[in-house]
DNA sequence: TCTGCCTAAATTGTAGCCAATATTTTATAC
DNA sequence: GTATAAAATATTGGCTACAATTTAGGCAGA
């Protein structure tokens, strides 16, 4: 699937915001016709990962500072509620899945694969939404996490992601105790941390060529 | 635009959930080729207004009771926050726009045009989000209101919408006083009212033919 | 040298065609 | 008469070709 391929590349920061996605070029890379590419680009445009300009083409989206602020404000409203719901419905099996997810994250961080670590960190948040079992919120969170990936590429202040692991561990404790209020509060402050980890005054620009980026 | 045309028909309850949207038929009605129709149907599928089944076609979505519940739960979380934000940023000009919107709603109700009244009622909620100036929340609310239209078609308990006008008037008062807390609370209870106005145990099925429905 | 316009190349937008899959009809057997 | 199976029909899926629009380059004039 070409949507998934492009998404992964975006999540792992293989392609930078602003990169042009020519239909022919993308089609060449994935070995499909322009029809498929077009459909994929429209899907990605709908989730705000690419912006399509009429008669000009599709580009990896470059969220503005305002947009970045709004995305994390939205996450700050929705995710705590969802974390509380997940805590209520938590099972031992789900706890194990979350734990192994965190291990993968650690492994990726240890091996220095920043992109993969970041992508897995988003996956952890998404997993919580899935456990909460609320499809509407899950869809929203999926979209917000995707956009967060672009935002982090543009505005992330520090190079480390260690604060991540700490918060995620704290969340695990709350889930183990099936404590909705704690989960909600930890998630809230975690999102605030992420939000304040952004430097919305200047931008990290690092344009890449599409062909280089997409070695699948 | 064919997307807008289909959307309006859905919002005004001209086409019922479950109705099949044949590509040829839709293309015939709007005078465009199947390529355009396919693109439009995919866009509508992304916003969950139609569901596309592989090799079978596109159908107006039929939200399940669970989905209906979730949509209004999401609205109950997001819209109060947005109403508070709107109250903070409210201007006299915006108040007038909202007021005229309510008048239109009254007029439509008075003339017995239920579909249009419902559509305008949704538009009022959307307008509030636009005034709040938060694009991310506005997009979410737009999607939720769209889906609410289908949900109301399927599960609305009573025939009247008078409770609507009452809550909307109460909101106006809060906006006039620039009172975020009041706006938030009124919106919250308004959404709860809407939610409890649904009868999620049985369904109002009323299939229509597409050609009849789309007298644009 | 810089500005403005005009032409040409490249890229997206749309339409129509053939292939693949689902649905309906019809024929046959029980 | 009913049920099963096979063929015919209709509908969607994907590709290619053509049209429309934008962008880039070059040329002329100031």
Automatic annotation (TrEMBL), chains A, B:
<keyword id="KW-0805">Transcription regulation</keyword>
<dbReference type="InterPro" id="IPR000524">
    <property type="entry name" value="Tscrpt_reg_HTH_GntR"/>
</dbReference>
<dbReference type="Pfam" id="PF00392">
    <property type="entry name" value="GntR"/>
</dbReference>
<dbReference type="InterPro" id="IPR008920">
    <property type="entry name" value="TF_FadR/GntR_C"/>
</dbReference>
<dbReference type="InterPro" id="IPR011711">
    <property type="entry name" value="GntR_C"/>
</dbReference>
<feature type="domain" description="HTH gntR-type">
    <location>
        <begin position="1"/>
        <end position="63"/>
    </location>
</feature>
<dbReference type="InterPro" id="IPR036388">
    <property type="entry name" value="WH-like_DNA-bd_sf"/>
</dbReference>
<dbReference type="Pfam" id="PF07729">
    <property type="entry name" value="FCD"/>
</dbReference>
<dbReference type="InterPro" id="IPR036390">
    <property type="entry name" value="WH_DNA-bd_sf"/>
</dbReference>
<keyword id="KW-0238">DNA-binding</keyword>
<keyword id="KW-0804">Transcription</keyword>
<protein>
    <submittedName>
        <fullName>FCD domain-containing protein</fullName>
    </submittedName>
</protein>
């Amino acid at each position: 699937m070409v949507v998934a391929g492009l998404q992964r590349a975006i999540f792992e920061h293989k392609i930078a915001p602003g990169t042009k996605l020519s239909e022919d070029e993308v089609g060449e890379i994935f070995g499909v016709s322009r029809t498929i590419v077009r459909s994929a680009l429209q899907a990605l445009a709908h989730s705000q990962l690419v912006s399509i300009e009429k008669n000009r083409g599709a580009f990896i989206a470059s969220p503005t500072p305002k947009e970045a602020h709004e995305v994390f404000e939205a996450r700050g409203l929705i995710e705590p509620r969802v974390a509380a719901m997940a805590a209520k419905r938590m099972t031992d099996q789900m706890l194990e899945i979350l734990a192994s997810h965190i291990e993968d994250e650690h492994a990726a961080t240890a091996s220095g694969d920043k992109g993969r670590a970041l992508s897995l960190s988003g996956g952890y948040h998404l997993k919580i939404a899935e456990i909460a079992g609320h499809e509407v919120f899950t869809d929203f969170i999926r979209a917000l996490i995707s956009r967060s990936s672009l935002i982090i590429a543009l505005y992330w202040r520090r190079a480390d992601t260690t604060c991540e692991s700490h918060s995620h561990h704290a969340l695990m404790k709350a889930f183990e105790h099936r404590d909705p209020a704690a989960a909600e509060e930890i998630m809230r402050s975690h999102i605030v941390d992420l939000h304040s980890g952004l430097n919305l005054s200047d931008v990290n620009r690092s344009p890449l060529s599409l062909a280089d980026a997409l070695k699948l």
